[in-house]
Amino acid sequence: MTSTRRGLVAAALLTAGALAGCARTAPVQDASGEFLGHATLSQRADQIRGAGTALGWRIDPKGPGVMRGTLLLRSHQAEVQITYNTQRFAIRYVSSVNLNYENGMIHRNYNSWVQNLRNTIIQQSAPKSS
């Protein structure tokens, strides 16, 4: 193989590697939802805490209607702010470690973790049948 051909093959491999790396990131997606049933603000806080804890998140209160969620998985960390009232909630990106966050892009698993948290919060808010 000539040196020019080897250079072209090396460049193609580097480009393919870079494109594969990009495929592991996606735009950060915040999430929101509406609670099911009726509950007080304190009960909503308990539902959010229960949902997060069930999924491995640490949920810390930051004030009325505001919580901080932190997920630690191996060497990865995601931190979100959860704002809520008695009817709805929102989950917003705060920071991360080892999730390749840059310019609004993040490791694609982050969005799955946030969607799982959103869905579990909604499930936790469902009225319990007697």
Spatial ordering of strands, largest sheet: 2-6-5-4-3
Say how many strands there are.
7
The share of residues in helices is: 25-40%
Sheet of most strands: 5 strands, antiparallel
Distance between the termini: 76 Å
Radius of gyration: 20 Å
Question: Which structural class matches the secondary elements?
Answer: alpha+beta
Identify the overall geometry.
Answer: elongated
Give the integer mean of the pLDDT values.
Answer: 87
Task: List the defining traits of the structure above.
130 residues, alpha+beta, 5-stranded antiparallel sheet, two-stranded antiparallel ribbon, 7 strands, 39% helix, elongated
SSE layout and pairings?
Layout: H1 3-22, E1 25-27, E2 31-34, H2 41-54, E3 57-63, E4 66-73, E5 76-84, E6 88-97, E7 105-107, H3 108-124
Antiparallel strand pairs: 1-7, 2-6, 3-4, 4-5, 5-6
Helix pairs in contact: 2-3
Explained architecture:
The longest helix is centred in the N-terminal third of the chain and has 20 residues, at 3-22. The chain is built from three helices and seven strands; from the N terminus they run αββαβββββα. By secondary structure, the protein is an alpha+beta fold. Strands 2-6-5-4-3 form a five-stranded antiparallel β-sheet, covered by helices on one side.
Characterize this entry briefly:
The chain is of the alpha+beta class. Helices cover 39% and strands 34% of the residues. It has helices spanning 3-22, 41-54, 108-124, and strands at 25-27, 31-34, 57-63, 66-73, 76-84, 88-97, 105-107.
